[in-house]
Amino acid sequence: MERNLSLNLHVLTARLDRAADRILRAEHGISYSRFLALTLVGELGASTQRTLADYLGVTEPSVSRMTGVLAADGLLDVQPDPAGGNRRRLSLTDEGKRRVASIRQEFEDRLAAVVAESGVPYAEYAEHTARLLTTFDRLEREAGK
Amino acid sequence: MERNLSLNLHVLTARLDRAADRILRAEHGISYSRFLALTLVGELGASTQRTLADYLGVTEPSVSRMTGVLAADGLLDVQPDPAGGNRRRLSLTDEGKRRVASIRQEFEDRLAAVVAESGVPYAEYAEHTARLLTTFDRLEREAGK
DNA sequence: GGCGCTAACTTAGCAAGCTAACTTAGCCAG
DNA sequence: CTGGCTAAGTTAGCTTGCTAAGTTAGCGCC
């Protein structure tokens, strides 16, 4: 097996995630996973654990544990949904908002710098990646998952 | 935050890995991680744990544990390197070879089908991904990490 | 020939993903 | 109005990443 696409994607992403995690822990005292969760709640409006799991691409138990930790750390507010159902309403605490705001732009700039350095056209690569994700989601849904 | 590149890469890869893992477990009784390790030993000639860790993009302790499990399962042969040093010589057992051979082509075909379905040009995307990986590796090495 | 150096590997413990199975809440059909 | 269904969330236990720290083997220099 030469180093094919699936392996390269796997390794590239693993390294990006690990680097992101190292930087965030060292400079901001938070893991990459938790940062992503807070960001999605704050800026994409992930308002229930189910929705957040979909946005992150992980399962409900994973989110369940993480929201517990984030709530205990005082970054996330988790409340029963007043509209009823068994849902939780997620929102950032003031401390959570402060954290996310202080990190986001600087962090994204660092990734863009790597892409620029590589000579890969950012917009095109981003669009291809987005398209693969959309297609893969659709195929999985059609397959009944 | 819109769904930017780093998040899309993270989620796309997580889903590909999970799908690969599900398929391999259900149809072949092996995890994706272990399949990758066996494949790299068998076909790229990863002959020590250090080399295998580099190919996989993970750390030595992770490989150390995995080679132990694979050896216990009778798929991998782990021996002290007769050439001396503290190295281990890795090689597939007959059972390990049989396993890898029966899986590889069918599995790669499935991924190629997803890419084709999405309309993303495979060769170009693969090349961009490879280039990003190379650049990122270089930047990390230069940074002293 | 022993001291320190480096490289490869192991051990221990933590983080965060997963699946399986369970609980809780609302909804609807008889 | 109850018994079953579905959706959301939780709990338990496994896998496989990680870092930090320790071990083992050869190598070089005095």
TrEMBL record, chains A, B:
<dbReference type="InterPro" id="IPR000835">
    <property type="entry name" value="HTH_MarR-typ"/>
</dbReference>
<dbReference type="Pfam" id="PF12802">
    <property type="entry name" value="MarR_2"/>
</dbReference>
<dbReference type="GO" id="GO:0006950">
    <property type="term" value="P:response to stress"/>
</dbReference>
<dbReference type="InterPro" id="IPR036390">
    <property type="entry name" value="WH_DNA-bd_sf"/>
</dbReference>
<dbReference type="GO" id="GO:0003700">
    <property type="term" value="F:DNA-binding transcription factor activity"/>
</dbReference>
<protein>
    <submittedName>
        <fullName>MarR family transcriptional regulator</fullName>
    </submittedName>
</protein>
<feature type="domain" description="HTH marR-type">
    <location>
        <begin position="2"/>
        <end position="141"/>
    </location>
</feature>
<dbReference type="InterPro" id="IPR036388">
    <property type="entry name" value="WH-like_DNA-bd_sf"/>
</dbReference>
<dbReference type="InterPro" id="IPR039422">
    <property type="entry name" value="MarR/SlyA-like"/>
</dbReference>
